[in-house]
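Sync notes, pocket subgroup
Present: LS, DG
LS reminded everyone that the earlier model was apo-only. Rerun requested with 3-hydroxypyruvic acid included. Inputs:
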Amino acid sequence: MFKRTVLIDNTGIDEFVLQELKALTEELIIYHDIPKSKNEILLRADKADAILVSWNTNLSSDIIEVLPELRYIGMCCSLYDEASSNVDIITAGRKNIVVKGVRDYGDQGVVEFIFSELIRLFLGLGNRSFRSEAVELGGIKFGVVGMGSVGRKVADAAAFFNMEVNYYSRTIKEEIPYKYLPLSELLSQCDVISLHLPRNTVLIDEQGFKEIGAGKVLINTGLGFSFERMAFDEWIGQEGNFAILDTDSITTEFRNEYRTLANVIMNERVSGFTRNARKRLSQKVIDNMRSYLRSRC
Ligand SMILES: NC(=O)C1=CN([C@@H]2O[C@H](COP(=O)(O)OP(=O)(O)OC[C@H]3O[C@@H](n4cnc5c(N)ncnc54)[C@H](OP(=O)(O)O)[C@@H]3O)[C@@H](O)[C@H]2O)C=CC1
Ligand SMILES: O=C(O)C(=O)CO
């Protein structure tokens, strides 16, 4: 059993598994907002042996170093690798703190967001239109960059709409029924390019935007941009280009800058963070805690 478990920010999981959580820990402290400073994180985490954290709060090395009781960090978000994590995995490992994350919980909302916006754009149903006349998605070339959990579901949805689906990923995947293209070919050939990469994976630079060219749609729903910001600014300024961006990819500063531009479509909330996703997330977070406690028996 844990001694003090702290839900350090808006993890989104509490109400679904409250009873189960209480059974795993002597004391449970729940916060619902994002701590504004390192000091606030430290105050909240005081004497915790277990911390649950969303993707919004950085548990950096200097924080982990000064929490002597800490032995478990449950990430209430994706954990891909050290480089893309908001928890310093290396410091945690050095201090024998176990870090567990979850996968495949928020994908469906992302798929629904992307296709609701794409359909509106292509059919010209809102205040913007991809072409001067309505066009169907069928036959349009769709490129997925990052064929992981979200990328696969987005690809399948595109195929459902009879789009011509291609993908680029770090590895070619035998089980994927879509055509693999090297990145530069995918960028130049596809009309719609959808980025589904881990946080901090920036693959599209100035040259990449040149390859994309004009009259295209770029989608980013991952954590942070998978493209270089300055190169994007120039590309989106060109006639006929559109971007569809989820909240978890943009900063407030970016939103303010692009608020009035009709060709930048921005979600007002994180698309994958639905009630259904929070339920799936809650179960996975609890399963991770249980498996950690079992392993220590
Ligand atoms: N907006 C939202 O609500 C949500 C957003 N997300 C975000 O979406 C993104 C994708 O999540 P998810 O699909 O679960 O992640 P996965 O880890 O399942 O997939 C990521 C994919 O990216 C590929 N990849 C990683 N690095 C590179 C690289 N350098 N070059 C090419 N391909 C690379 C990997 O390829 P390979 O398999 O070949 O190694 C992998 O297939 C993340 O940023 C995640 O945080 C997730 C859920 C909800
Ligand atoms: O958990 C994740 O990876 C997310 O991107 C949540 O939006």
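DG: The mean pLDDT is 97.
LS: The pocket of NDP (ligand 1) is lined by residues 78, 80, 103, 106-107, 109-110, 146-151, 169-171, 196-199, 201, 203, 221-223, 246, 248, 270-273 (CB under 6 Å).
Action: DG to write up.
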